[in-house]
Amino acid sequence: MRKKIVAGNWKLNKTYEEALSLVSEIENMVKDEVNGDVTVIVSPPFPYLQSVGKLVQGNSKMHLAAQNVSEHDSGAYTGEVSAAMLKSVGVEYVIIGHSERRLYHHEDAQTLYKKLKAAIANGMKPIFCCGEPLEERDAERHFEYVGKQLHDSLSYLSNEEFDQVVVAYEPIWAIGTGRTASSQQAQEMHEYIREQLSRMFDAAAAHNTSILYGGSCNPGNAQELFSQADVDGGLIGGASLKSRDFTDIIKSF
Ligand code: PEP
Questions:
Q1: So which domain of life are we looking at (predicted)?
Q2: Please, which residues have CB within 8 angstroms of residue 121's CB and are 6 or more apart in sequence?
Q3: What is the C-alpha separation between 51 and 45, in angstroms, rounded?
Q4: Could you report how far apart the first and last alpha carbons of the chain are, in Å?
């Protein structure tokens, strides 16, 4: 059975002290309040990974993710962080293909494919993000757009490599805007994604892949979104920076 996952993407937020307080609060709340079988992931900025990882390692529900990884293994790539480096400090998941990295850092499908390969080769699980901009939805080309994103980066993976991947559908018009996709919009896209995955890999792989929704998810809308048949959890931005909100989202299954 596929996993239920709630992943917090902290982005470019929090000082070191603030990050440690936030993760301690989340860890305590998860320990005290979360009973079900849910995988909780936190994604702090690079410099805090090891310290945050130490604070969650005793909690079997909690896991550590990086927000990015280099497609290169080593060498003269100033400012980059490799998959092996992340693995060596206890990182288990890595967000790949977030729309902010595609847009501001010009990460194309081929680069994302290389990042996926690097992460998987080093024993990490990618959280692969896809999602359409508003103009594509308005033009009713959103299925085609997301299908191409999936095909262009994922389809070159082997079945065994793909087994490690979590997919996150994040419509760009819903990220940080307060405008959430309706549960129906999320469900129909998640169903479409699963269908595409079953063509690229096989039905069992598609069935077992967790597909997360991301985009202005909050404690008020998480339950409705997570109750959809093909929505297996959420990738949470803004609301993951508040321990109470994040925990309430985790409790929405
Ligand atoms: C995100 O950027 O991954 C995200 C889902 O952000 P927010 O929840 O703030 O819309």
A1: Bacteria
A2: 83
A3: 11
A4: 15
> How many whole angstroms from 216 Cα to the centroid of ligand 1?
6
178 is in an annotated binding site: no
Helix or strand holding residue 250 (H, E): helix 243-250
The pTM assigned to this predicted structure is 0.98
pLDDT digits (tens, 9 = 90+) for 105-128: 999 999 999 999 999 999 999 999
Question: Which atom of ligand 1 is found nearest the CA of 217?
Answer: 8
Nearest CA to ligand 1 atom 2: 237
Distance CA 73, CA 84 (A): 7
240: exposed, middle or buried (C-beta count within 10 Å: 0-12, 13-18, 19+)? Answer: buried
Query: Which residue's CA is the closest to the ligand 1 atom numbered 4?
Result: 237
Q: Which residues pair with 129 in a beta bridge?
A: 168
Ligand 1 pocket, 240 CB below 6 A? no
Is 170 labeled as catalytic in the residue annotation? yes
* Ligand 1 center to 22 CA (angstroms): 17
Ligand 1: nearest atom to the Cα of 234: 5
CB 249 near ligand 1, within 6 Å: no
Residue 243, both tokens: 């321990």
Averaged pLDDT, groups of 10, the chain, 253 residues long: 96 98 98 96 98 98 98 98 98 98 98 98 98 97 98 97 98 93 97 98 96 97 98 98 98 97
130, 167 Cβ separation under 8 angstroms: yes
